[in-house]
Amino acid sequence: MKNLICGLALLVAATAPATARGTTAGSDSNSATPIHFGTSHEITSSVLGETRTVNVWLPPEHDTAEMPYTVLYLIDGGVEQDFPHIAGLAQLGVISWQYEPLIVVGIETTERIHELTPAPEDARYRTQFDTSGGAEAFRAYIAQDVIPFIEATYRVGERRAVIGESLAGLFIVDTLLEQPDLFDDYISVSPSLWWDDQAVAGRAAERLAAAGHSDTRVYLTMGDEGGTMQAGLDTLLAALDAVEGAPEYRYVDRRETETHSTIYHGAALDALRWLYPYPPYDYGATPWYLIEGGQPDQAANEGNE
């Protein structure tokens, strides 16, 4: 049956009249309408001394509902970066009732090795990555420019979350350790904890012990990267287990199923399901057409018994 369906699909494709790319047969090629998926803001940063781009996706009811929304700040949130697919997950939550509606704020990066790395102590890294070390300033930009703008413009709730992958994941772990009260929920996917000979992970136990994390939650995951990537994460996990009062965390080992290039989208979905779950949707009585040999009045009769 599958082969028959595939064959018919190919036959239809082969015999259908040709149309110009981007047009539909019989339609006016000038009638296309752009699809808008969010809003871009230009923010003049008092910290960075330049204008930067922030992209925002809102739940459809934002302008009419009275409820506040958790804000998910996305590092590497440019429209050519991770904004479309993470905003798509927020839209999926709205239409599927899996997790609560979120405002997604995409914070664009322009020079990732500079903006997302703490200043290296190891001379090898200072030499090899001579533009690195701007994480503290980038974090100040988020704290002093981005967050106040978002909270003054949109209907935000009490919780702030942050999400990122790779170098952005490193930045998120570094933020958890250096400024833990900036966010409530931290989602770090395949963090580049190899950075600076694993120095960020190496100071995790000391930093976690020095700060209170009574309401902080952390989601961590890694693919098959191995080496100093996994070693750094293992050090961080050991600190989270050992330090009294460390944040609640969830670690998902994806070494057997994902690579660095495939892990992000599915892991982000899993994190949102863990952090902001809705109860399973109640679809009511099973409709008759899902019952073997069912009849149109069967479900209604069963519901009245």
From TrEMBL:
Signal peptide: 1-20
Pfam families: Esterase (PF00756)
Coiled-coil region: none
Keyword vocabulary terms for this entry: Hydrolase, Signal
Chain segments annotated as transmembrane: none
Single GO molecular function: hydrolase activity
Designated name of the protein: Alpha/beta family hydrolase
Organism: Maricaulis virginensis
